[in-house]
Amino acid sequence: MQLVLEDAPCEEMDDIINPFLSTGLPMTLEELGLGDASRESLQKAAEASCTPDNFMSAMPFDVSPADILGAILAASVTGHPYQEEGDGHTGHEEEED
């Protein structure tokens, strides 16, 4: 999710996601057991993550609950192609610049 917030390049995402694949770490909401979480529940989590005493205050740029919700959803969607191609495929080989 942080890489999505930072708009990280595909290569950086691959560097993080490929070890997730090899160790079986969750990459989607479904794998976290949150596949059926409502948008309202995810919104509440996003709001809680933006309180001053939470870790988002350490980001080097302002982060809103809407940013967090978008990143949660985008990160989960981004994880699906990797999950489906669990054979070492990085998910970005076919992209063109």
Strand content: under 5%
Provide the CATH topology: Dehydroquinate synthase-like, alpha domain
Q: Average pLDDT value? A: 83
Q: What is the H/E order?
A: HHHH
Task: Give the number of DSSP strands.
Answer: 0
Q: Helix content range of the residues, please? A: 40-55%
In this structure, how is the largest beta sheet organized? none
Gyration radius (Cα, Å) is 14 Å
In the predicted model, the low-confidence regions spanning at least 5 consecutive residues are 87-97
- Broad shape: globular
What's the end-to-end separation, in Å? Answer: 23 Å
Number of structural units classed as domains: 1
Question: How many helices in DSSP terms?
Answer: 4
> Which class do the helix and strand fractions yield?
mainly alpha
Explained architecture:
By secondary structure, the chain is mostly helical. The protein has a single domain (2-84), classed as Dehydroquinate synthase-like - alpha domain (Dehydroquinate synthase-like, alpha domain, Up-down Bundle). 51% of the residues lie in helices and 0% in strands. The chain is built from four helices and no strands. The chain has helices at 2-5, 10-23, 39-49, 65-84. Residues 87-97 have low confidence and may be disordered.
Short description:
By secondary structure, the chain is mainly alpha-helical. The protein is built from four helices and no strands. The protein has one domain: Up-down Bundle (Dehydroquinate synthase-like, alpha domain), CATH 1.20.1090.10.
Topology (elements, then pairings):
Blueprint: H1 2-5, H2 10-23, H3 39-49, H4 65-84
